[in-house]
Design goal:
Layout (H helix, E strand, L loop, with lengths): L10 H4 E9 L3 E8 L5 E8 L5 H16 L8 E6 L3 E7 L6 H6 L6 H20 L2 E2 L8 E3 L8 E3 L6 E2 L18 H5 L7 H15 L9 H10 L14 H10 L10 H6 L1 H4 L9 H22 L4 H11 L1
Antiparallel strand pairs: 1-2, 2-3, 3-5, 4-5, 6-9, 7-8
Length: about 325
Amino acid sequence: MNSSIYKSGSLKDSFKLDKVLGEGSFAVVRKAVKKSTNEEFAVKIIDKTNLESDDQLALQTETEILSQIDHPNIVKLHEIYDDKTRFNMVMELMTGGELFDRIVEKEHYSEKEAADTIRPVVDAIRYCHSMGIAHRDLKPENLLYASSDPNAIIKITDFGLAKVINNDNLMTTACGTPGYVAPEILLGKGYDAAVDYWSIGVILYVMLCGFPPFSEDSNEKLFDAIKNGEYDFPSPHWDPISDYAKDLLRKLLVVDPAKRLNADGILKHPWVVGDVTPRKNLPTVTAKIKEFNAKRRFKRAQLLVLINIKWRNMVKSETN
């Protein structure tokens, strides 16, 4: 743990809180300006009063992990203010939007651009794994751009489900997001960091066609399809996509984690290296991703209805 990030005093002594950027069951993320420098940050404010012991342990783990990580493609934790009722994490402010939002804005989108986008994500995960850390919740919502600049870099966020890997023991906790979770997690027989490469495979699949490889009406059917590795490359959507891209996906979406491509293998794959990667525009893909985004946002809006009402009251009282 990097103890230097823990600061004394109150968050409000050092920061001016601004608009709400996002909300969750026990947390709200707000834009904040550091009074001494006028720098902008994002502050994740966690209500500790209703956190159960498992949640407290997860928060401690996330903090320990983020305090150790230093990679250009991973969101940075700057400071922590801990008081009786709230745990405040001052984070790097990401203003460039989510991965899929950025893709649909592009006038020209190709396999080469997809490869260039996923490469730094894989490198960041390789770094995490070298530090003994598994993310366990890679998905498009957790891949954000630092700014709106066309050349802004992409960063991995939300280490709330991340775990320090013990080489002697497999992880067993059932966690992740349904469409991106690896089969070995669902099988409940223990798993390792290879689950992150499965999630990368799912993200990349969507990046190349605009819809997920596993999509069913119920979680039960969805999980069965994932556990059996039941996906394909349906025509006509996949007809324009190169065999190199399909080869990489076949080596990522492998049910047996021991046979799944790891970071080194991904980064050495010809499609990721880029020499053979097509640069032809894929306009139908961006249209499909836009449709996929709309469905995701609708589901997210439905979940927001369930947010704890006291967070809304807290935000109102602090704004006044």
